[in-house]
Design brief:
Elements: E1 4-9, H1 21-32, E2 36-41, H2 67-77, E3 80-84, H3 86-90, E4 102-106, H4 108-117, E5 121-125
């Protein structure tokens, strides 16, 4: 069984791009190290899964690389992104509004199951 890293982005505020660097960078590194990586975007971070949001944000002011570029890099490395189901209603989104790198919608039960029953799962929360 592959070792798994679950990154839960719950307290990460998309209005502050500087907070977004670590989770995406660490997800990309973990995937490059052959870990199975899932990033669940929930609460305010759920907005990052909506088309047009992350590409308007920079981790560092003046950077030519957007937050969406970091998401694409992580996805290309094998990271799977998920949007928490309550975010659809919270931010007036539909499945069609999600970025193509988003692998789907998960609920709280998925997160709890991964945390509590994932034998080889490590969890980072941002």
């Amino acid at each position: 069984m592959a070792k798994k890293l679950l990154i839960i982005m719950v307290n990460t505020d998309p209005r502050n791009g500087q907070e977004l660097g670590a989770p995406f960078f660490q997800a990309t590194v973990a995937a490059a190290m052959d870990y199975e990586v899932e990033v669940v975007c929930t609460a305010t971070a759920g907005q990052l899964m909506k088309k047009g949001v992350a590409d308007k944000l920079q981790i560092k002011p003046g950077s030519t690389k957007s937050v969406y570029d970091f998401i694409k890099d992580a996805h290309e490395a094998g990271v799977k992104f998920y949007c928490c189901s309550p975010n659809l209603d919270l931010f007036d989104m539909t499945v069609d509004d999600l970025i193509p790198e988003c692998s789907g919608i998960v609920g709280g039960a998925h997160v709890i199951e991964q945390v509590m029953e994932g034998v080889d799962t490590k969890v980072l929360s941002y």
